[in-house]
Amino acid sequence: MPQNQYKNSKLxxxxxxxxxxxxxxxxxxLSFMLCFGALALEAFNLKKELSLNEAWKIVIADAVYGIxxxxxxxxxxxxxxxxxxxxxxxxxxxxxxAKVVVFIVVGLLSxxxxxxxxxxxxxxxxxxxxxxxxLKLNRLIWLIRIELVGxxxxxxxxxxxxxxxxxx
Length: 168
Hints:
The protein is an all-alpha fold.
């Protein structure tokens, strides 16, 4: 292969990798924002007496949240393995593990609300708003608030990690 062709080929791969990195980062950030927005929508609409419209908004927001959280996870893995600062950088940083733990905890906390909202679907399809007991309503509200706090910690941990804080 002539020297010039090799340089062009290497340059093309570098540009493709830069585009891939930019797109994966964009999808990572966008889906993270969608997660937060969906949770905020759930928090603002959740109340004792729900209208049919409000209940549907919550169910749809939770579906958006689930899809977005999956995209956050997939793009996060892609960034660690292919498009970030290198696997060694992340795996040797305890702040990275803290960030992952917060993400996992938020994900686990989201299971109860998600299963609750899925349970509403039958009544919603019959055009009946769900009836919430006060104890369950309070549990849902607190879980969503804790998830929101978790989602505010993740970017802080990412900023700390990106600056190399926590590494030797």
